[in-house]
Amino acid sequence: MTATEPTYRGRARIAEPGEGIGPDELALATRNHGMPLEALRYDVTPPGLHYVLTHYDIPAVDPATWSLELGGAVTRSLRLTLDELRSRPAVTSRVLLECAGNGRARYEPRPVSQPWLLEAVGTAEWTGTPLAPLLEEAGIAAGAVDVVFTGADHGVERGVEQDYARGLPLAEAMRPEVLLVWAMNGAPLPPQHGAPLRLLVPGWYGMAHVKWLTRVEVLDRPFDGFQNAVAYRLKVGAGDPGEPVTRIAPRALLTPPGWPDFMTRERFLRPGPVLLTGRAWSGRAPVTAVEVSTDGGATWSAAELAPADPAHPFAWRSWSFAWTAEPGSSELVARATDAEGGQPTEQVWNRQGIANNLVQRVPVTVLG
Ligand SMILES: Nc1nc2c(c(=O)[nH]1)N[C@H]1C(S)=C(S)[C@@H](COP(=O)(O)O)O[C@H]1N2
Ligand SMILES: [Mo]
């Protein structure tokens, strides 16, 4: 290696038309697993079936010596051990998480990164303590605008060496639903989900829920770190500033009906009555309707949507649709709508492959 060669080579790339998934994307896909869609049947995703997305490595964190620092533009900085956090008022909240990159590999052309199809989602019962009272105890300075959350994980991304860190507008950080979380589904957080402590920002895409949290810093200026200023921006041109990625757009998914072919994942059913079921969610407004098409989107019918559960406003909702399967090929499609609109049936492309809530299409063969 000569001195003029750059040390770090990673760069953003869009796949060539028709280019298949490469070894770099395959390596990411084997580390970062999705939720098998049959797990949509559970209200709460069982341990191990929740999706995982980790930019760098799962860091080694010793919970016995770990502590959380809360500082920056505050009257007095705080340092809290895990025991001190756990002795504070605890809340358990059922919250859906979805990676902002869910659907990326369905874009044409495909932005080269973690190649999610539709499985980067899960719903867990998270236990932790609200963040807002801690920020209030520290005393937020007048003029504070952002709160930055930093993880213990370290890596390099498109040539920029960094600790994973995300800024959140102060008003969002102060929402009562925002938690510092130490348990998932009643058990201590597993290493891959951020042990010993992670942030939970209900309604926001996954990147905001910082894992392996070590530091909370109040800023009197907008955070300009990589994960806010460069990554997680909705933009088409490489030079566009783009819009920041925030809340989860609406989506409905079908619990895969019938049975799959091992290799192609094509699905088969027997003719007759079939109850199609699935889940729908949105992080920006309550879901108002789910519609189903059994003819590839030519005609749509209203599905039965479970009533909103006031105990779990940030969880997914179940829906069902009674179908009579006739022999032959069909394409099943589902789409969710919230107060701000519905899912697109044509792709709305962006160069980071973010927030692709294009409707899911499930081709099925009904046997004769
Ligand atoms: N410290 C840290 N926090 C992180 C990440 C990360 O790489 N490092 N990935 C984020 C992204 S992009 C997502 S989608 C969620 C995934 O959370 P999960 O793995 O618990 O499902 O964690 C977020 N928090
Ligand atoms: Mo993500």
Automatic annotation (TrEMBL):
Family matches, as Gene3D superfamilies: 2.60.40.650, Oxidoreductase, molybdopterin-binding domain
Gene Ontology molecular functions: heme binding; molybdenum ion binding; molybdopterin cofactor binding; sulfite oxidase activity
Domain of life: Bacteria
InterPro entries tied to this protein: Ig_E-set (IPR014756), MoCF_OxRdtse_dimer (IPR005066), Mopterin_OxRdtase_euk (IPR008335), OxRdtase_Mopterin-bd_dom (IPR000572), OxRdtase_Mopterin-bd_sf (IPR036374)
Residue ranges of every copy of the Moybdenum cofactor oxidoreductase dimerisation domain listed in the record: 272-365
Keywords, comma-separated and alphabetical: Metal-binding, Molybdenum, Oxidoreductase
Domain Oxidoreductase molybdopterin-binding intervals: 55-226
Gene Ontology terms: biological process: sulfur compound metabolic process
Cofactor entry: Mo-molybdopterin
UniProt region (Disordered), positions on chain: 1-20
PANTHER family linked to this entry: SULFITE OXIDASE, MITOCHONDRIAL, SULFITE REDUCTASE
Name of the molecule in the record: Mo-co oxidoreductase dimerisation domain-containing protein
